[in-house]
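re: ur question from yesterday

yeah so i grabbed the chain u mentioned. its 757 aa long if i counted rite. heres the sequnce exactly as i have it in my notes:
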Amino acid sequence: MAVEEEGLRVFQSVKIKIGEAKNLPTYPGPNKMRDCYCTVNLDQEEVFRTKVVEKSLCPFYGEDFYCEIPRSFRHLSFYIFDRDVFRRDSIIGKVAIQKEDLQRYHNRDTWFQLQHVDADSEVQGKVHLELRLSEVITDSGAICHKLATRVDLWNASNLKFGDEFLGELRVPLKVLRQSSPHEAWYFLQPRDNGSKSLKPGDLGSLRLNVVYTEDHVFSSDYYSPLRDLLLRSADVEPVSASAAHILGEVCREKQEAAIPLVRLFLHYGRVVPFISAIASAEVRRTQDPNTIFRGNSLTSKCIDETMKLAGMQYLHVTLKPAIEEICQSHKPCEIDPVRLKDGESLESNMENLRQFVDRVFSVITKSGVSCPTVMCDIFFSLREAAAKRFQDDLDVRYTAVSSFIFLRFFAPAILSPNLFQLTPHHTDPQTSRTLTLVSKTIQTLGSLSKSKSASFKESYMAAFYEFFNEQKYADAVKNFLDLISSSGRRDPKSVQQPILLKEGFMIKRAQGRKRFGMKNFKKRWFRLTNHEFTYQKSKGDPPLCSIPIENILAVEPLEEESFKMKNMFQVVQPERALYIQANNCVEAKAWIDILTKVSQCNQKRLAVYHPSAYLNGHWLCCRASSDTAPGCSPCTGGLPANIQLDIDGDRETERIYSLFSSYMSKLEKMQEACGSRSVYDGPEQEEYSTFIIDDPQETYKTLKQVIAGVGALEQEHAQYKRDKFRRTKYGSQEHPIGDKSFQSYIRQQSETPAHSM
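ran it thru and got these structure tokens back, copy pasting raw so excuse formatting
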């Protein structure tokens, strides 16, 4: 969901690592300890909550959160809450980072002091204000100016607890002297009542890592030259001279380049030939078959990212039931004699662990038919390249594939299931230890290494591994690898099974199926699979309503004015619309996105819809009286897409442009290296040795095209910023006075000259 501006779309996203808190104030009771959790808020709207860490004044959370931000905001806020025995949650303190300050902390661990929270500091919203400067002539002839320099807003409807302060604003006298009457929109500000905040350290601190991204995306034709150059990468000989490979060479980290490249190539159906080309080139440079694909190369990172995007559903179908069983059973599985708890039996623990390993190993090796086609096509190319390069090593065709599917796909997901959305939060310490032991064993079983017992650093792991019949497990692994890397494999689309895509509590309005039923709002557990959308009273109960996917004709936001409720959306069916309220704006967007994607192949999807509800005999949006009247606004669902691959090609090209632009000095250095190499055939000069340049002339030609394409886009961005600066009215409803983020943005853009190439 992008914010639309004239000729441009703005996308905002944030990736957060919530680390730990320390030195929280003690609880005023005999225990002193606290049960704390942390929330992430856009302004004052909660969009994420960590697990509760019990009995600690230095709670470790270690939780990751990513979201697309669907609206404007002023602060990214983090609140630490204490949950007491009566389940009444009290705020200990908060960290509030202004939007314009987010780049200051970009992608680095930072300790923030917790600040005091009171009602006067928790203000939000904006207000339209009109003021006039009055002149009064006194008896002595002097002119006096009467001016209310401060305006306070209060909510007087709270009769039980008294008036509620909503916020204040101040208008300098010089503003009214310049223009009277003065009319503008203002952001409300916290009250400056002279109260002193607690000194730093009184409330403790919170460690965070925040990555905020804002993409400004033009229409598709602006990106054609750079995009076409990138998409031709698989056909360039050698591939090291291609635009995509060059991006991997200049980026500080290979993953930085891999993420937008893979998304772009997936969107345009070119990821398999590209990865095949760079994988073949890497295999040709590899001297030892035992080290094949072991490094963090561009090839490895691109395959990792492809598996993450295309294989997430496959991962969930395969592993989630087994992971849930391990998490719920709480069976002791510690096999390190030093770490055994009192009363635990080593033999019993080994048996528990062996059962879990067998369960996980079985579901993995029997899942080959469900492996996504794009992953299988890539594995086939890896297998072929490795077998051709190392013809004397009969196992290399297996190890080339197992190094990805076991070591870099299944094993990490078992080790940290929350990072792959297999569990909502980090697991408890005992379960985490069990998953670590399962992951280590699965990784070794899938590696097909010559001496597996020797591959364990710990003697107790080597002893545990002796329980397994090596030949039996090796045969199962090879059969699985043969299936997922075969060009003639069965199409996984023929496997029709319900796949859980999303679930959670939301509030729904009664659909009015009963003629005299009350159309009230109720909390329900919603569940979406690739077959149906259902809701029930609570998780696990029988469905109260089931909507087949083919009956979902549109999924769109519902205007707030319909029921005076935020974060509402509608699921339009042939007979009626189901109105639903999500918990926050991020959840509403997530549900709209996944419901839209899963229903986009419906032939009967609507082209138009009603953005408001049908109430009191008419549609609130267009005032049509018939409840079957055609919609009055175009649907925003877009074209059919794969459920996982919700990719915007223009946005990914914009991200690649931004990377090229930020590494322009390295591109120019690479050009110098090509020029030097083309006239000097001696040993490679040390200052250029960091670049892979197989063909200096071809690489130089590509670099010239890249730099020209980047320069053209830089000029377009600079021109857009200048135009925006000229046409923006500060004090409008879109850009109220007090919007420091917008002030900072406009100031930066007005000072940025157009890049001349």
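noticed a couple things. The CA atoms of residues 1 and 70 lie 6 Å apart. also The chain has a mean pLDDT of 84.
anyway ttyl
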